[in-house]
Hints:
The protein is α/β, with parallel strands linked by helices. It folds into 2 domains: 1-33; 54-186, Glutaredoxin. 43% of the residues lie in helices and 16% in strands. The protein has a 5-stranded mixed beta sheet with strand order 5-4-3-6-7, covered by helices on one side. A two-stranded antiparallel sheet has the order 1-2. It is globular, with a radius of gyration of 23 Å. The protein starts with a helix and ends with a helix.
Amino acid sequence: xxEAAGRKRRTAPFVSLAVAVVVAVLFIVLANGKASKPDVTSxxxxxxxxxxxxxxxxxGKSFDLSRRKGSWVVLNFFQSTCLPCKAEHPELVxxxxxQASIADGAELYTVIKDDPDSAVAAxxxxxxxxxxxxxxxxxxxxxxxGVAQVPETWIIDPSGVVVSRVATTIxxxxxxxxxxxxxxxxx
Length: 187
């Protein structure tokens, strides 16, 4: 056997071991890693007036987003079959409770995306949440906001301008912090 072939035979196990260790570490990091905060996502709507959103709520009341001017508004697009939506729901409950205790707390609205009213009503009855649930029967609200998949959360400032979009699950802490930062920037 030549000297070069002998070196290759002795080096090959070490290279294989190094590759295996790198793959194992990468797998562990990806499997256990959690994002430290949700991604605030870009949108063509940022810093522009919010699209028209006129509908009714599950309890039959009228909803017109343009009539919410003067208040901070948080829209959360939701489906009762969406696992990330289900996972973030307790966080929205906590956020809504926190905002209810603040004099100028944000108004939270859930917008139903491609989901039967009865399924959403049953979900909220079982898991809580007393904020208005807006029907989007023809998908026009989701389309106007460019919602591709749920959950997705939007913040609209008191002048009716879209100031934030989060296209993943959120936590109450993140949403409260984001809202506070936007309030400070708003003046």
